[in-house]
Amino acid sequence: MKQFNLRQTSKMLTTLLCSIMIAFTLASCQQDAYNPDNGKGDESTPNTFPFETTSSIQLNVKYDVPEGYKVLFEVYLEDPFVLDQDGQAVKRTDINPVIIRMTDDNGAYNGKEVITADRGDEVYIYTSYIGVPGLFKTTINNNVVNADINYESISKTAPQTRAYTTAPAGYYTLGTWDDKGRPNYLDTEGELSLSESILNTINNTLKEGKYCPDKYRQSIDFKVNDPQNRSAEVSVRFIGGTSSAASTFGYYCYKEGASLDDIKAAKKYIVFPNTFTASNAWKKPVALKSGNSVKLHYIDENGVDQGTEFPNGTRIGWFLINNRFMNPKEEKTFYSTTALNSDKRTHTAAFRINDFVVLSFEDWNTDSDYNDVMFNVWSNPIEAIAPEVPEVPQEKPDEGDQSVAYSMTYNGIVAFEDNWPAKGDYDLNDVIVKYNSVMKFNTKNEVLNTEDTFTALWSGATYKNGFAYQLNTDRSNVTTEFTENPSTSTAQGLDKDIAKATVNVFVNALDETGNNTKTSTYKIKNTFKTPVDHEVFGVAPYNPFIFIHSNLEASRNEVHLINHVPTEKVNKELLHTSNDLSDPANGLYYVAAESYPFAIHLIDAENFSTTERISIDQSYPKFTNWAKSGGKEDKDWYK
Questions:
Q1: Strand, coil or helix: 89
Q2: Can you give 6-39 as a three-state secondary structure string?
């Protein structure tokens, strides 16, 4: 029998223990890989990071409007305009608004909104509606946007740059103006707060970016033509417009039957030196607000100012010098007398709403919407200015809530692990679905319907997994129609056993992807019998989920996004088992201690793929820092 050497054995154990300690030390030094077993080591405490690529903000917007005037506005995360080669601002087509909403009758909107988390702090609020500033720049502070939008606020924030305070050579004035171009000769008695019906009628007649009907386009030199042959006072009110140019507006007088040479020679008088009211985001001063008025002076054929009374038979022409207030060398002038225009185009449109006469200019741009700068021409007596222009019926207040006022489009990708409640390989590719959703709203910002497109991109699983999504309204409130790729199977469509509207899209991702040799697309239209408040309803992709083993029955496995409530068909006994730390009593669902989610939503994503059976951070290295920073860094990790 071999002798037991206590001293030697003790030495060997000491050496072995030291080796183990060194190995653990080296391992801990080198262990920088991001994996689900890292973290606090507390398997009973959920990871508090929700793995969201979106953020929630409070949006508070207030326009100064007449009672009843609702303003449709868009919110951008970067300037939606770009300067062209002529230095003019043109609305971009390469970006889309992240929010579109309608104010209430008092010009106010207050609501919670969901936008991408990959953003800065700047916000641009744009509207094409007249009577209010077009573009307002502000910031997001502590996830809140406060925007008090009126002509005074943009006038204060708009920086002053070069401009003229006296008339350019060859032009005449009715008085003086300040360095922003606000006339000191405004007629306060003639100032008018335009009604919501007038503003809405103009908005719907000359729509931004839409072709102005030919019947409104005309060479329109107004004639003083009182039925009783009386002289008349003539005034011009500023309405507003969409132009980015700080243009100068004026008029000229001539006798009926005057030659073209006489019209050219007529003295040109400036009415509004600066008609810019579009934005506080550009380096241009703001001088006017909707309703400001100026009383004109009659200038006879000899160029003599005869005061404010215009003889019967006098013709009044109009001109607009493009961006002249900012650029004294600008010579691009457009006239209501078409023969005077160098391009021989008609640059004016006109119509009347009862006795309210609208004169509108198409400036340098060729978008043909003819709403760049708009004015109201009126007279005392009122009958003296009655041009032969088309009459437009005055808009009536909106009487229903089923008409579509606007729509918003959402895009992205959702990806799932199917091993819930146990942790999987976290490649997040067991089911990958791309979505495109168009949500349509009424003037109350209620959802009328959704048009949802879902494409099965990938199925990296061995299970047969189905895909569905739940809308936050009762099933009885929804009519669902598959407009592309409908199935005769009763499995597709609204789930009749679930109280909330839950749409089963497909039941087997392996079939839909042909074992990853193809993709399958489904288009679904959901129409709501009673419109749903947008804050209650939420935004796309709503509550998307997969159900395992194509199980359409009760007590099934469902995998949802973090803190999205499962349907009543889920096997509730699986909640808070294995690696899942759901706590329904506290509103926690599909959370775990690991540093990976069971499912993820990637807003605005166009593509997404990971290496099979390899955790997502290996395919997307920035994922690690994004998760560790609580979503504060590397927000674009998947793009």
A1: strand
A2: HHHHHHHHHHHHHHHHHHHHHHHHHCCCCCCCCC
Can you tell me the distance from the alpha carbon of 503 to that of 468, in angstroms, rounded to the nearest whole number?
5
CA gap 211, 370 in Å, rounded: 8
Ordered DSSP codes for 548-616: GGG--SSSB-EEESTTPPPPTTB-GGGTTSTT---BGGGTB-S--SSSS-SEEEEET-S-----TTS-H
- Residue 623: partners with Cβ closer than 8 Å, 6 or more residues away: 34, 616, 617, 634, 637, 638
CA distances from 490 to 9, 479, 503, 601 (A): 73, 15, 12, 28
Report helix, strand or coil for 389. Answer: coil
pLDDT at 162: 53
pTM for this predicted structure: 0.88
DSSP state letter for 40:
S
What are 441-491's pLDDT values in tens digits?
Answer: 999 999 999 999 999 999 999 999 999 999 999 999 999 999 999 988 889
Q: Which two tokens stand for residue 388?
A: 């032969």
Q: How far apart are the first and last CA of the chain?
A: 71
User: Is it the case that residue 399 has pLDDT exceeding 70?
Assistant: no
Which neighbouring-strand residues pair with 257? none
Please name the residue that has the structure tokens 């009673």.
530
